[in-house]
Design goal:
about 5% strand, about 750 residues, three-stranded antiparallel beta sheet, mainly alpha
């Protein structure tokens, strides 16, 4: 900034701009609230039909979100302009005071294009001598003015850099970059440049201390859009991959535990930072994403990590973080297309003795990170919208009963065609395939709308379920695939997916019950099983029976679905208290349909135990004993916002069955289950230790019927009217027939036959 520019500055235009932006922020805050409370909420409640059920609501959701981003961006710009105006006024005042102070000492400041000069204020013929005599004062004033001009220039340039960076975040619409002042935004950019400089060095020369510094910065700025974009674009796509491959190389980390610990955290922190960067629409980041995709199939031409491909490295970074949906889908499309060319029986492209490029530090014993499909699917597991899009139905208007119903090509390839190979270390489990577990995670997020490991607190904060017509369409495909004739073999060959499939079915238990509630596919009970979102899943009666019969075969999936089913039935009883005839009728229907679903699951569990253990009654009984213990899933369940979060046994706190509930508020029936009082039949307190793990099929069914009976008895209680209605309507027989599948229903209840070797 030149001297005359600052000395003669007129700040009126800048003050007017600050004032205008302040008013705009207030107006946008009002518009944001209107968009959230009126536009979005009304749209969600509207009864859209056909394609509008998807297109209109999604468009309105994004439009409402733009008002929020517009307010955020305007607020940041206002703060930056306000800070800059205040600083420039301050530097203007300092400059004027410095010049006036010099004048009092007989010094004169002259500005010219490109600089300024300080001399004594005397006629030209005496100036040379006087300048020499006043050299110290002249130098001091010159340095003071230069310092002021440097600071003003820094302030002005910093504002320009930050404002341009914020504006570049989004080509269309508005960015969500939020900063409390200009300096914090400027520091984020400066720190990103410093960290990028470190990451561009030879990874072999980076010390553990420097890795720790990098990790600290990435954690500090994990949600900062300007830091993320500047870091990513400064390091560059190939630079990023080369750096991580060099840091992760086992020959670097194996002999230094400290370095291994830092590298493990760096993998996660890099993934989160790069993910945040991909959300930017700047031209630099658009080029970055395109270049990263081009690197996928190519080897990096480096000595580290067995000279890996771009896919092999990047897939281990995208395991963590929130990524741009389109980038993830473009990445996945390329990866799958490339994988299809080379996947098959025989030598595996990714897992072979020549490839010692261990690039993953998380769950390392069973997942060395050599298969890029694993990391990519983990990324989908953390990015629900991208996952739903990746497994999108070819036609959301078709249900599984339609002859034209098709399964997404990605889903078909990954579940039925791809040859999966274990990537375990010598200390790991050779029978375990981490990639299939990650596939389950991806499908969980695609069908539920939540990241597979979302914490219960975040689920409650989000306000309940995230299911949509699109997630339901993915769920229909999953049910169709695993409920098919080949379903039992698929589940047996893919045991890593069992818990995920159970969680997915649990998340749609209301729609499954709805599909079971009619006669065939007709007269479905919308009153007892109302839709909780638009475009609910339609499994069809046969499809629901087949899917449940396959899930019942595995202990994990049986437990997850049974717990969700029982809790949903109890919530339906709470939703329809015995206060009128309509409620009593719906409670009956909920009990009968719940008994039918439970009967399918239990019949399948018994059949599979018998087929698996082939006459070994003791082992079969132990298996059934474990399955009868599913009721303990109720302990620790949390109900809020129309959903229940049920913790899976032996898993981390994040391993939850996110199941819908029918009642707006938790009633006695659900509270009793959560409090572990609804059923004492399998409670360890009432069993001898030797009996706990053993259960004959007859006892297993007996306990199932007893649990249903407990719910039934709790509902009718001492209510004379309900007792009479139940007696005259023969509720006892209805529930038992539904559970045991007697008479004309018996063949339907079998569903798919158990898997046999």
């Amino acid at each position: 900034m030149e001297l005359d520019t600052l000395r003669d500055a007129n700040f009126k235009l800048l003050d007017d701009a600050v004032k205008d932006w302040s008013a705009l922020v207030k107006n946008l805050e009002t518009l944001k609230k209107d968009a959230e409370d009126n536009l979005a909420k009304v749209a969600y409640k509207a009864q859209w039909a056909g394609k509008n059920a998807k297109v209109s609501t999604e468009f309105i959701r994004k439009t409402a979100g733009e008002f929020t981003d517009a307010h955020t961006q305007a607020d940041s710009i206002y703060k930056i302009l306000s800070d800059t105006a205040g600083e420039l006024k301050g530097y203007h005042r300092q400059l004027v005071e410095a010049i006036d102070g010099g004048r009092k000492k007989g010094l004169r400041v002259l500005g010219y294009e490109g600089g300024f000069t300080v001399t004594t204020d005397v006629p030209p013929e005496a100036r040379s001598k006087m300048d020499q005599d006043n050299k110290a004062d002249i130098t001091a004033l010159r340095d003071e003015i230069q310092r002021i001009l440097n600071k003003a220039t820094e302030s002005d340039n910093s504002a320009k850099t930050v404002l341009r960076a914020i504006a570049d975040q989004s080509k269309l619409g508005f960015a969500d970059a939020s900063y409390k002042d200009r300096d914090s935004a400027a520091k984020a950019i400066a720190d990103a440049e410093a960290m990028a400089k470190l990451a561009k060095r030879d990874p072999h020369d980076v010390t553990n201390t420097e890795l720790a510094t990098l990790n600290s910065a990435l954690v500090k700025y994990k949600d900062d859009p300007l830091f993320a974009e500047k870091f990513a674009t400064s390091v560059g796509p190939k630079g990023l991959l080369t750096f991580w491959a060099g840091i992760a190389d086992p020959y670097q980390a194996t002999y230094d535990p400290t370095r291994g610990d830092e590298a493990k955290q760096l993998q996660k922190n890099l993934g989160i930072t790069i993910g945040r960067a991909t959300l930017s629409d700047s031209s630099a980041m658009t080029t970055w994403k395109s270049s990263m995709l081009e690197l996928g199939e190519n080897q990096l031409e480096i000595d580290d990590a067995s000279n890996p491909t771009g896919f092999a490295v990047m897939s281990n970074l995208i395991r963590f973080g929130d990524y741009d949906d389109q980038f993830l889908n473009d990445y996945g499309n390329r990866l799958v297309a490339y994988d299809k060319q080379l996947n098959g029986e025989g030598i595996n492209l990714w897992m072979n003795n020549a490839n010692q490029g261990d690039l993953n530090f998380w769950g390392y014993k069973n997942d060395r990170g050599r298969d890029p499909m694993t990391g990519f699917l983990e990324a989908l597991g953390h990015n629900p919208d991208a996952s739903t899009e990746f497994f999108a139905s070819p036609d959301v208007t078709l249900d599984p009963s339609d002859k034209k119903f098709e399964v997404n090509e990605h889903l078909k390839y990954l579940t039925q065609e791809r040859v999966w190979v274990s990537d375990a270390t010598l200390q790991g489990d050779d029978d375990y395939v981490a990639g299939r577990n990650s596939l389950g995670h991806a499908l969980e997020s695609a069908t539920t709308g939540f990241a597979y490991d979302t914490d219960i607190k975040d689920i409650i904060a989000a306000g309940g379920g995230h299911r949509t017509a699109d997630t339901a369409a993915v769920m229909e495909q999953v049910s169709y695939t695993y409920g098919s004739e080949n379903g039992p073999k698929m589940l047996h060959d893919q045991p890593e997916l069992a818990d995920s499939l159970g969680k997915m079915a649990g998340a749609y238990i209301d729609d499954i019950d709805h599909s079971l509630s009619g006669v065939g596919n007709h007269v479905l009970d919308e009153k007892t099983f109302p839709p909780q979102y638009k475009g609910r899943a339609n499994f069809t009666e046969t499809g629901a029976i087949n899917f449940l019969s396959v899930l019942g075969q595995d202990e994990k999936s049986h437990a997850a679905v049974t717990a969700a089913q029982h809790l949903y039935t109890l919530s339906a009883l709470d939703a329809h208290p015995p206060t009128n005839d309509d409620n009593i009728g719906r409670a009956h229907d909920a009990l009968v349909t719940g008994a039918e679903a439970r009967g399918i699951l239990d019949n399948s569990r018994v059949g599979q135990a018998e087929a698996t253990y082939k006459g070994d009654a003791e082992e079969a009984n132990k298996s059934l004993g474990r399955s009868a213990d599913w009721v303990k899933l109720g302990a620790g369940a949390v109900v809020a916002g129309g959903i229940a979060a049920i913790p899976l046994p032996g898993s981390t706190a994040a391993a939850l069955v996110i199941a819908p509930v029918a009642a707006d508020t938790v009633g006695d029936a659900v509270n009793t289950f959560i409090g572990h009082g609804i059923d004492h039949a399998v409670d360890g307190k009432e069993q001898k230790p030797a009996e706990k793990a053993q259960l004959t099929s007859s006892e297993f069914y007996g306990k199932g019927a007893d649990q249903l009976g407990s719910a039934y008895a709790a509902y009718i209680g001492e209510n004379e009217k309900v007792n009479k209605t139940a007696d005259s309507g023969d509720w006892n027989q209805d529930i038992e027939n539904a559970y045991y599948g007697v008479g004309s229903h018996e063949s339907e209840y079998r569903g798919r036959a158990p898997y046999e070797d």
